[in-house]
Amino acid sequence: MAPINPPTWMQAGSYPARSDRLVIASLLSYPGFAVDEATPMRIRQGVKPSYTNYQLKVRAAATPNMTVIVSAGYAFIDQHDTGGVGTYVCVNDADYTLTIAAAGGAGQFRKDTIVASVYDGEYAGAANEWRLEVIQGPYAASAGATVRGTLPANAQVLADIAVGPSQTSVATGNITDVRNYTVAAGGIVPVSSSAAPTRLHPGQVVYQTDTDLFEVGQQAGTKRQVREVVRPSSSDQVSLPASPVTGAVTDFTSGQWPPVTITVPPSGMVRITVGAALVNTNTSASTAWVLWRASGALTEGGGIKNAVSTAGTRSYASRSVVRSGLTPGASLTITPQYQFSSVGTIGTVTNCSDGQLIVEPIA
Question: For 52-72, what is each residue's pLDDT tens digit?
Protein backbone atom coordinates (compact mmCIF):
# COMPACT_ATOMS: atom_id res chain seq x y z
CA MET A 1 0.00 0.00 0.00
CA ALA A 2 1.03 3.61 -0.45
CA PRO A 3 0.03 7.06 0.83
CA ILE A 4 -3.76 7.36 0.73
CA ASN A 5 -5.03 10.37 -1.19
CA PRO A 6 -6.74 12.71 -0.96
CA PRO A 7 -6.26 13.28 2.79
CA THR A 8 -9.50 13.32 4.74
CA TRP A 9 -11.66 16.45 4.63
CA MET A 10 -9.73 18.21 1.85
CA GLN A 11 -12.09 20.76 0.31
CA ALA A 12 -11.40 19.77 -3.30
CA GLY A 13 -11.14 16.05 -2.61
CA SER A 14 -13.53 13.14 -3.00
CA TYR A 15 -12.90 9.99 -1.02
CA PRO A 16 -14.57 6.72 0.05
CA ALA A 17 -16.06 5.81 3.44
CA ARG A 18 -12.85 3.95 4.19
CA SER A 19 -11.06 7.27 4.69
CA ASP A 20 -13.50 8.31 7.41
CA ARG A 21 -13.07 4.91 9.09
CA LEU A 22 -9.31 5.41 9.04
CA VAL A 23 -9.76 8.72 10.89
CA ILE A 24 -11.50 6.81 13.68
CA ALA A 25 -8.79 4.13 13.62
CA SER A 26 -6.06 6.76 13.90
CA LEU A 27 -7.55 8.01 17.18
CA LEU A 28 -7.95 4.65 18.91
CA SER A 29 -5.63 2.68 21.14
CA TYR A 30 -2.77 0.51 19.89
CA PRO A 31 -3.75 -3.22 20.05
CA GLY A 32 -0.68 -4.43 21.96
CA PHE A 33 -0.42 -7.99 20.61
CA ALA A 34 2.19 -9.52 18.30
CA VAL A 35 -0.47 -10.96 15.97
CA ASP A 36 -1.57 -7.43 15.02
CA GLU A 37 1.88 -6.07 14.18
CA ALA A 38 1.85 -7.43 10.63
CA THR A 39 -1.08 -5.08 10.00
CA PRO A 40 0.18 -1.74 11.35
CA MET A 41 -3.11 0.06 10.64
CA ARG A 42 -5.02 -2.23 12.96
CA ILE A 43 -6.35 -0.86 16.26
CA ARG A 44 -7.53 -2.30 19.56
CA GLN A 45 -11.21 -2.89 18.92
CA GLY A 46 -13.74 -3.22 21.68
CA VAL A 47 -16.50 -1.71 23.76
CA LYS A 48 -16.38 1.84 25.13
CA PRO A 49 -15.67 1.69 28.89
CA SER A 50 -18.24 3.16 31.25
CA TYR A 51 -19.11 3.35 34.94
CA THR A 52 -19.03 -0.28 36.18
CA ASN A 53 -18.50 -1.16 32.48
CA TYR A 54 -22.20 -1.55 31.73
CA GLN A 55 -22.07 -0.73 28.00
CA LEU A 56 -23.10 -3.63 25.76
CA LYS A 57 -23.20 -5.91 28.80
CA VAL A 58 -25.07 -9.18 28.30
CA ARG A 59 -27.42 -10.11 31.16
CA ALA A 60 -30.20 -12.54 31.89
CA ALA A 61 -33.85 -11.56 31.61
CA ALA A 62 -35.51 -10.35 34.82
CA THR A 63 -37.43 -13.62 34.83
CA PRO A 64 -34.89 -16.01 33.26
CA ASN A 65 -35.96 -17.64 30.02
CA MET A 66 -34.18 -18.54 26.78
CA THR A 67 -33.34 -14.93 26.00
CA VAL A 68 -30.57 -12.55 27.03
CA ILE A 69 -30.50 -8.76 27.04
CA VAL A 70 -27.70 -6.58 25.66
CA SER A 71 -27.53 -3.12 27.19
CA ALA A 72 -26.98 0.10 25.25
CA GLY A 73 -23.48 1.18 24.30
CA TYR A 74 -20.78 1.74 21.71
CA ALA A 75 -18.50 -0.77 20.01
CA PHE A 76 -15.52 0.01 17.78
CA ILE A 77 -14.95 -2.85 15.36
CA ASP A 78 -11.98 -3.18 13.05
CA GLN A 79 -12.39 -4.34 9.45
CA HIS A 80 -10.91 -7.85 9.20
CA ASP A 81 -12.25 -8.96 5.82
CA THR A 82 -9.53 -6.75 4.35
CA GLY A 83 -6.87 -5.47 6.74
CA GLY A 84 -6.19 -1.78 7.10
CA VAL A 85 -9.47 -0.32 5.92
CA GLY A 86 -10.56 1.31 9.15
CA THR A 87 -12.87 0.99 12.09
CA TYR A 88 -16.66 0.91 12.27
CA VAL A 89 -18.57 2.67 15.07
CA CYS A 90 -21.56 0.58 16.14
CA VAL A 91 -24.17 2.07 18.48
CA ASN A 92 -26.98 0.35 20.37
CA ASP A 93 -29.23 2.95 21.99
CA ALA A 94 -31.47 0.72 24.15
CA ASP A 95 -31.73 -2.74 25.70
CA TYR A 96 -31.83 -5.36 22.94
CA THR A 97 -33.21 -8.87 23.43
CA LEU A 98 -31.68 -11.92 21.75
CA THR A 99 -33.15 -15.42 21.70
CA ILE A 100 -31.02 -18.45 22.55
CA ALA A 101 -31.88 -21.57 20.56
CA ALA A 102 -33.49 -24.47 22.39
CA ALA A 103 -31.13 -26.73 24.32
CA GLY A 104 -30.20 -30.19 23.14
CA GLY A 105 -31.11 -33.47 24.78
CA ALA A 106 -29.26 -35.69 27.21
CA GLY A 107 -25.47 -35.44 26.94
CA GLN A 108 -25.58 -32.41 24.64
CA PHE A 109 -23.75 -29.28 25.81
CA ARG A 110 -22.87 -26.21 23.81
CA LYS A 111 -21.38 -22.72 24.05
CA ASP A 112 -23.26 -19.94 22.27
CA THR A 113 -21.57 -16.60 21.74
CA ILE A 114 -23.09 -13.11 21.73
CA VAL A 115 -21.30 -10.81 19.29
CA ALA A 116 -21.51 -7.37 17.75
CA SER A 117 -20.68 -7.96 14.09
CA VAL A 118 -20.28 -5.80 10.99
CA TYR A 119 -21.19 -6.84 7.43
CA ASP A 120 -19.87 -4.62 4.64
CA GLY A 121 -20.84 -5.56 1.09
CA GLU A 122 -17.93 -3.57 -0.31
CA TYR A 123 -15.57 -6.30 0.89
CA ALA A 124 -17.62 -9.48 1.41
CA GLY A 125 -21.21 -10.61 0.85
CA ALA A 126 -24.16 -8.36 0.12
CA ALA A 127 -25.24 -7.13 3.56
CA ASN A 128 -24.43 -3.61 4.73
CA GLU A 129 -25.24 -3.44 8.45
CA TRP A 130 -24.09 -4.31 11.92
CA ARG A 131 -25.87 -6.78 14.17
CA LEU A 132 -26.13 -7.97 17.72
CA GLU A 133 -26.46 -11.71 17.22
CA VAL A 134 -26.09 -15.16 18.71
CA ILE A 135 -23.55 -17.53 17.17
CA GLN A 136 -24.58 -21.05 18.13
CA GLY A 137 -21.77 -23.41 19.08
CA PRO A 138 -21.51 -27.11 18.18
CA TYR A 139 -22.70 -29.75 20.66
CA ALA A 140 -20.20 -31.51 22.89
CA ALA A 141 -20.35 -34.40 25.34
CA SER A 142 -19.50 -32.25 28.37
CA ALA A 143 -19.54 -28.59 29.40
CA GLY A 144 -15.75 -28.52 29.52
CA ALA A 145 -15.48 -29.71 25.91
CA THR A 146 -17.66 -26.98 24.37
CA VAL A 147 -16.18 -24.50 21.90
CA ARG A 148 -17.47 -21.43 20.13
CA GLY A 149 -19.10 -21.62 16.76
CA THR A 150 -17.58 -19.93 13.72
CA LEU A 151 -17.60 -16.18 14.37
CA PRO A 152 -18.10 -13.50 11.71
CA ALA A 153 -14.88 -11.96 10.38
CA ASN A 154 -15.66 -8.50 11.77
CA ALA A 155 -16.97 -9.16 15.26
CA GLN A 156 -16.51 -8.07 18.85
CA VAL A 157 -17.30 -10.88 21.26
CA LEU A 158 -19.50 -9.77 24.16
CA ALA A 159 -20.34 -12.93 26.11
CA ASP A 160 -20.37 -16.72 26.07
CA ILE A 161 -23.56 -18.56 27.06
CA ALA A 162 -23.37 -22.04 28.58
CA VAL A 163 -26.27 -24.18 27.41
CA GLY A 164 -26.73 -27.59 29.03
CA PRO A 165 -28.97 -30.55 28.17
CA SER A 166 -32.68 -29.74 28.28
CA GLN A 167 -31.96 -26.27 29.72
CA THR A 168 -35.02 -24.03 29.66
CA SER A 169 -33.63 -20.69 30.82
CA VAL A 170 -30.42 -18.63 30.83
CA ALA A 171 -29.48 -17.42 34.30
CA THR A 172 -26.69 -15.06 35.31
CA GLY A 173 -24.46 -18.03 36.11
CA ASN A 174 -24.69 -19.22 32.50
CA ILE A 175 -23.26 -15.95 31.14
CA THR A 176 -19.50 -15.28 30.92
CA ASP A 177 -18.59 -11.67 30.18
CA VAL A 178 -15.75 -11.56 27.64
CA ARG A 179 -15.99 -7.99 26.38
CA ASN A 180 -12.82 -6.30 25.18
CA TYR A 181 -12.49 -2.55 25.85
CA THR A 182 -10.86 0.19 23.83
CA VAL A 183 -10.09 3.85 24.45
CA ALA A 184 -8.61 6.76 22.56
CA ALA A 185 -4.87 6.71 21.93
CA GLY A 186 -3.15 7.74 25.16
CA GLY A 187 -6.05 6.59 27.32
CA ILE A 188 -5.82 3.92 30.01
CA VAL A 189 -7.26 0.64 28.77
CA PRO A 190 -9.21 -1.54 31.24
CA VAL A 191 -8.28 -5.22 30.81
CA SER A 192 -8.32 -8.45 32.79
CA SER A 193 -4.92 -9.78 33.82
CA SER A 194 -5.53 -12.97 31.81
CA ALA A 195 -6.12 -11.00 28.59
CA ALA A 196 -3.73 -8.08 29.12
CA PRO A 197 -1.76 -6.91 26.04
CA THR A 198 1.81 -8.19 26.09
CA ARG A 199 3.38 -5.70 23.66
CA LEU A 200 2.42 -2.22 24.82
CA HIS A 201 3.83 0.81 23.04
CA PRO A 202 6.19 2.96 25.16
CA GLY A 203 4.09 4.88 27.66
CA GLN A 204 0.88 2.93 26.98
CA VAL A 205 -0.93 2.19 30.24
CA VAL A 206 -3.42 -0.56 31.03
CA TYR A 207 -5.46 -1.10 34.18
CA GLN A 208 -6.04 -4.67 35.29
CA THR A 209 -9.59 -4.70 36.58
CA ASP A 210 -9.23 -7.97 38.53
CA THR A 211 -5.92 -7.21 40.28
CA ASP A 212 -6.22 -3.39 40.63
CA LEU A 213 -2.77 -2.95 39.04
CA PHE A 214 -1.51 -0.53 36.40
CA GLU A 215 1.11 -1.54 33.82
CA VAL A 216 3.08 0.67 31.42
CA GLY A 217 4.94 -0.16 28.21
CA GLN A 218 8.69 0.51 28.05
CA GLN A 219 11.00 1.55 25.22
CA ALA A 220 12.77 -1.83 25.34
CA GLY A 221 9.53 -3.61 24.39
CA THR A 222 8.84 -4.82 27.91
CA LYS A 223 6.26 -3.63 30.42
CA ARG A 224 6.34 -3.01 34.14
CA GLN A 225 3.95 -2.33 36.98
CA VAL A 226 3.27 1.33 37.67
CA ARG A 227 4.42 2.13 41.19
CA GLU A 228 1.69 4.07 42.91
CA VAL A 229 2.38 6.71 45.52
CA VAL A 230 0.35 5.55 48.49
CA ARG A 231 -0.01 7.84 51.49
CA PRO A 232 0.45 6.37 54.98
CA SER A 233 -2.29 6.58 57.58
CA SER A 234 -1.44 7.56 61.16
CA SER A 235 -3.03 7.91 64.56
CA ASP A 236 -1.72 9.88 67.56
CA GLN A 237 -2.24 8.88 71.17
CA VAL A 238 -4.56 11.20 73.05
CA SER A 239 -4.30 9.85 76.59
CA LEU A 240 -3.60 6.88 78.86
CA PRO A 241 -6.43 5.34 80.91
CA ALA A 242 -6.69 6.98 84.32
CA SER A 243 -6.59 3.50 85.88
CA PRO A 244 -4.67 1.23 83.52
CA VAL A 245 -5.18 -2.54 83.58
CA THR A 246 -2.29 -4.39 85.20
CA GLY A 247 -0.77 -7.49 83.64
CA ALA A 248 -2.98 -8.04 80.58
CA VAL A 249 -2.40 -6.70 77.07
CA THR A 250 -5.22 -4.17 76.67
CA ASP A 251 -6.63 -2.17 73.76
CA PHE A 252 -6.59 1.59 73.94
CA THR A 253 -10.11 2.89 73.45
CA SER A 254 -10.78 4.88 70.28
CA GLY A 255 -10.91 8.01 72.43
CA GLN A 256 -7.51 7.30 73.99
CA TRP A 257 -5.71 6.24 70.81
CA PRO A 258 -7.78 5.62 67.67
CA PRO A 259 -7.16 2.51 65.54
CA VAL A 260 -6.10 2.86 61.89
CA THR A 261 -7.98 1.16 59.04
CA ILE A 262 -6.60 0.92 55.48
CA THR A 263 -7.29 -0.98 52.28
CA VAL A 264 -4.62 -3.55 51.46
CA PRO A 265 -2.75 -2.47 48.28
CA PRO A 266 -2.28 -4.72 45.21
CA SER A 267 1.12 -5.86 46.54
CA GLY A 268 -0.54 -7.36 49.62
CA MET A 269 2.13 -5.69 51.79
CA VAL A 270 1.96 -3.10 54.56
CA ARG A 271 4.47 -1.53 56.93
CA ILE A 272 3.30 -0.92 60.51
CA THR A 273 5.18 1.35 62.92
CA VAL A 274 4.36 1.97 66.57
CA GLY A 275 6.23 4.17 69.01
CA ALA A 276 5.78 5.94 72.35
CA ALA A 277 7.48 7.32 75.43
CA LEU A 278 7.40 4.44 77.94
CA VAL A 279 8.11 4.64 81.68
CA ASN A 280 7.79 2.06 84.45
CA THR A 281 10.02 2.53 87.48
CA ASN A 282 7.57 0.98 89.93
CA THR A 283 10.19 -1.73 90.57
CA SER A 284 13.51 -2.51 88.93
CA ALA A 285 11.81 -5.27 86.95
CA SER A 286 8.55 -3.49 86.10
CA THR A 287 7.82 -3.41 82.36
CA ALA A 288 5.81 -1.20 80.04
CA TRP A 289 4.85 -2.18 76.54
CA VAL A 290 3.18 -0.49 73.58
CA LEU A 291 1.91 -2.95 70.99
CA TRP A 292 -0.74 -3.40 68.31
CA ARG A 293 -3.12 -6.07 67.11
CA ALA A 294 -4.45 -6.61 63.59
CA SER A 295 -7.92 -7.60 62.43
CA GLY A 296 -9.63 -7.95 59.06
CA ALA A 297 -7.13 -8.84 56.34
CA LEU A 298 -4.68 -10.02 59.01
CA THR A 299 -5.26 -11.60 62.41
CA GLU A 300 -2.34 -10.95 64.73
CA GLY A 301 -2.24 -10.24 68.44
CA GLY A 302 0.08 -7.88 70.26
CA GLY A 303 3.37 -9.55 71.17
CA ILE A 304 7.14 -9.35 71.16
CA LYS A 305 7.27 -9.22 67.34
CA ASN A 306 5.25 -6.02 67.06
CA ALA A 307 6.04 -4.13 70.26
CA VAL A 308 8.31 -1.62 71.98
CA SER A 309 9.08 -2.08 75.69
CA THR A 310 11.05 -0.87 78.69
CA ALA A 311 11.94 -2.52 82.02
CA GLY A 312 12.60 -0.61 85.24
CA THR A 313 13.37 2.62 83.43
CA ARG A 314 12.14 4.83 80.60
CA SER A 315 12.48 4.38 76.81
CA TYR A 316 11.61 6.52 73.80
CA ALA A 317 11.44 4.25 70.78
CA SER A 318 9.51 2.99 67.78
CA ARG A 319 9.46 -0.24 65.82
CA SER A 320 8.53 -1.01 62.22
CA VAL A 321 7.51 -4.39 60.81
CA VAL A 322 6.34 -5.48 57.37
CA ARG A 323 3.47 -7.88 56.83
CA SER A 324 2.95 -9.51 53.40
CA GLY A 325 0.66 -12.00 51.73
CA LEU A 326 -2.50 -10.07 52.57
CA THR A 327 -5.50 -10.05 50.25
CA PRO A 328 -5.44 -6.98 47.97
CA GLY A 329 -8.52 -4.82 48.42
CA ALA A 330 -9.34 -6.22 51.85
CA SER A 331 -9.78 -3.98 54.88
CA LEU A 332 -7.08 -4.04 57.56
CA THR A 333 -7.48 -2.49 61.03
CA ILE A 334 -4.55 -1.93 63.40
CA THR A 335 -5.51 -1.27 67.03
CA PRO A 336 -2.90 0.12 69.49
CA GLN A 337 -2.47 -1.65 72.85
CA TYR A 338 -0.57 -1.31 76.12
CA GLN A 339 0.64 -3.61 78.89
CA PHE A 340 2.11 -2.84 82.35
CA SER A 341 3.45 -5.62 84.57
CA SER A 342 2.79 -3.43 87.62
CA VAL A 343 1.52 0.08 88.09
CA GLY A 344 2.79 3.01 90.16
CA THR A 345 1.80 6.66 90.07
CA ILE A 346 0.42 7.33 86.58
CA GLY A 347 2.44 9.88 84.68
CA THR A 348 5.61 9.86 86.77
CA VAL A 349 6.26 6.23 87.75
CA THR A 350 4.20 4.43 85.11
CA ASN A 351 3.30 5.93 81.79
CA CYS A 352 2.83 5.50 78.06
CA SER A 353 2.57 8.84 76.28
CA ASP A 354 3.07 10.65 72.98
CA GLY A 355 2.38 7.47 71.04
CA GLN A 356 1.97 7.31 67.28
CA LEU A 357 0.77 4.47 65.04
CA ILE A 358 1.62 4.58 61.31
CA VAL A 359 0.29 2.12 58.72
CA GLU A 360 1.83 2.36 55.23
CA PRO A 361 0.57 0.43 52.20
CA ILE A 362 3.56 -0.74 50.15
CA ALA A 363 3.04 -0.30 46.42
Answer: 999 999 999 999 999 999 999
